């Protein structure tokens, strides 16, 4: 029968003190993860509970799968092409903690956005209402008619040229203007939502953070890239470094750079998992996120 030995004792038996096996950068990453706050959008989400075997996202109200952007990484486009996009309506349950408008398509395209916003406020008065938008259609006039608690505006580039390359839409100035509108309204929690795409936008991330902060944005939600099969060629053509895109270390290093400029946060369900990892595992782990099509796990109630 073999004798089990602690790894520290094994290291010493080999003439190596355990602390030598540690890694300074790994310790810094671990400390960074422990110090991070959960994104405001993720607060109240089932994904933060690691004891939940099948967590689902916050409820959402889907207005339309249509979008005026054609982003090279977009899961919503994939869902539309595969006939998997949800029909308009409310996907969730009674008494939700929060509702997102919306997770597919661009909600501000819909002429029903103001009507639906008011309906949700009346039907779910205790719920936090989150707007997820690319921001390109937001105007002062429209903003005055909307009533949200949190607004997430997607921006993945720090220049007009790079924005056009990623979104296939010449709307960079309009998105920056939306950040300015929302950032100046301190009655709402404002978030810039950015996808980590090394080889494409890793150099832009700290610049986006600095820009957003200068416009009064409260928070950056930095998210890792999920690679959908239909987007692989587009991402490859744009220069994505697939290996770095799967590295947790590279993702966290990007977040650390952004943190110099703004209150950066990372996806709550990921943060909950990363906090359980020891420094060396966190340093070397990969996040292999490949999917064919996104799936809505919530029932349509309205």
TrEMBL record:
InterPro entries: Aldolase_TIM (IPR013785), Elp3/MiaA/NifB-like_rSAM (IPR006638), rSAM (IPR007197), rSAM_sf (IPR058240). The keyword Disulfide bond does not apply. Keywords: 4Fe-4S, Iron, Iron-sulfur, Metal-binding, S-adenosyl-L-methionine. Residues 53-265 form the Radical SAM core domain. PROSITE patterns: RADICAL_SAM. CDD domains: Radical_SAM. Its cofactor is [4Fe-4S] cluster. It comes from the Archaea. Coiled coil: none annotated. GO terms for molecular function: 4 iron, 4 sulfur cluster binding; catalytic activity; metal ion binding. This is Radical SAM core domain-containing protein. It comes from Thermococcus kodakarensis (strain ATCC BAA-918 / JCM 12380 / KOD1).
